[in-house]
Amino acid sequence: MKLLEFIGFIVKYLLIGLGIAALFIVFMPDRFSSQDQQPTQQLKPIADTPRTQHGFADMLAKVTPAVVGIKARSQAFPLNSEACSSRLQALPPETNACAFLNNGSGVFIDNKGHLVTNAHVLDKASTIIVELQSGQQLKANIVGVDVDSDIALIKVDAEPTHYLPLPENDNSQVGDWVFAIGTPNMAFNQTVTQGIISSKFFSRVSHYIQTDAALRPGNSGGALVNAEGELVGITSLSTQSEQGEKLYQSYAIVANNVAHVVKQLKEHGQVRRGWLGLDGDMTINLDSISLELGLTPEQKQQLQDRISQLPYGKGIVITGINAEGPADQAGLQPLDIITKVNDEPIYNSIDLISAIWNLPPQTSVDIEFMRGDDMLNQTIKLGQRS
Fold first, then answer.
1. Is 57-156 in CATH node 2.60.120.10?
2. Active site residues
């Protein structure tokens, strides 16, 4: 009974509250009107709404006309020749021939009609056609090709309205926004992809930029620009991993390295690089060196003692010398440990190559090396790398 009495008490006061609310609605209707006393704000159609410019469209509009598409065609080869084996475009049947056709991109670097692209884009090329963003096509001639850096310099008989000058210095940093501009094979028109600089490193004869701005076949030789529209690299290649999903890594040759190559191609038609004449597996790995040179346990221990005197990881052990090469003529010997070149510390063979990659033949370099327990210095005049 007490429960029923409690429920009745609650119901009674709910009914009283509802009655009071009804009286307010009857005698004060304005207070409960659904009409808003303020004028209703009408939404403007999207097309009539002023838009603020965002992104990098203005910058890209200035730089993209400097980037072109390139079509490079080889001479005709007989169908039964060894050349007709890959990457072919067959000519009409009556010619009984084939030809190579490469597609790539290029960048105007001055107002005189010079362009840079990748050397592999011009492989076997006898005819080179440059297609501007406007659709105009121009014939180009080769000024010079450097296979080692994969850079080629070509020229058209026209003055471009837009170009991207090659910088003297490299001020790009990991984390910078970058834009890759080029003409992939799969597209009819120029494309722009965006990313950041993921890494920077030296390989063979050039410094490289790794970026997550996507590259595809046909982007080779295109432009990598920063957020200010400055040329920071020439797009070169991409790699693909087939592990679950496709992961692409894209690379560009640092623009001021390209400037060095272009300068030599203009002056000499080729790039002349200095050469030390060292050979073998130059490392600081004791087991690898011992195996390569066939060291006795005593010799291996002596080398271990010498390596332990150096800061961890510093130095490379000479394991081979080219006879009559610059290092041989200067008196360097196997098991000498090179620690510095021109006062720059050396930690691996890449450091050694990087220290001399842009030095021409006959340049003198100062080599610091360890022989026995002695630290020595020797000046070596570079030869020419073949």
1. no
2. 120, 150, 220
